[in-house]
Amino acid sequence: MDKPPLDPMEQRKRIITSRNRVLALVLFGLVALFFAISIAKMS
Amino acid sequence: MSSATAQPIPLPADWRDFLSLTKPRVMSLVVFTGLCGLLAAPVSIDPIIGFVAILCIAVGAGGSAALNQWWEADLDAKMKRTAARPLPAGRMERTSARDFGVALSVGSVLTMGLAVGWLAAAILAFSIFYYAVIYTIWLKPRTPQNIVIGGGAGAFPPMIGWIAATGEVTLMPVLLFAIIFFWTPPHFWALALFVETDYAKAGIPMMPVVAGHESTRRQILVYAVLMLPISTVPFWLGVAGWLYGASALLLSALFLILSLRVAVFRGGAEDSDMRPEKRLFAYSVFYLFALFAMLVADRYLVG
Predict the structure, then answer these.
(1) Looking at this predicted complex, what is its ipTM?
(2) How is chain A split into domains, by residue range?
(3) In whole angstroms, what is the distance from residue B249 CA to residue B291 CA?
(4) Predicted TM-score of the model (pTM)
């Protein structure tokens, strides 16, 4: 059975939450990347 | 104001919309050719620095693709193939796409400069400028030769990969540039022949729209003929081994045969639904993947 469509406010909240999660992942990835670059440059 | 006349507030763009702005499918070819340039270089590079170089090439390509979609949002809305993109479909504000593109472009160039080298970073910056400004803004809406000159934008990744590894511009990265530069027109014109109505609707002066099918087919053949010597030059000059030389010869000969089918031997029943053009387009993608894979295989197997 199909799920009932979300109301716009609920959909907005979901999109913003998933965007924030992806942004946090990207920022964490950048921190890890620059840490790895520093190690590689030092060795 | 009554609720019946109030405009619904548009939903914010999903992260997938931002991802699709970077044209991930095009990016896969960019990453592959960049990686091949890096691996085919006759020096070894720290794997982390190598990874960063490829990441920067990919992110830079994504940034220039976002800028391309920001500028072409109105044109994209007129073409069936591109109407569902985030901007023409109204899922994203134009300024968001522009800012996203600028952030990716600046971030990738700075990271390339700091982590890998400023020569590679400078060429990456120029390639982004070339695609976003010289090709998208200047040439594409003005001349049917847009693909020929714009092909330079896609030809930079293997050059950047090679220079990221070696730190200098030599003959081989220039040859890698030339291979993609001459491969681009027949690849795109084969596509343009079977999606011509889309380009015509959007008013983009693609070769089949402006010069007609006959002329486009002739020019596809000219470039296919040129591909044969150009792709084998690294072997004749001794910068690539026999494995690459034999593969380039075979792959380019098949490219030529399929182009002949598009340009000369026409008139069969399958020609009406553009099957030879679709076959050439599909093969041209395989051709580039196979040619660059053979370049890397040659470096590690033949030496």
Answers:
(1) 0.81
(2) 17-43
(3) 10
(4) 0.87
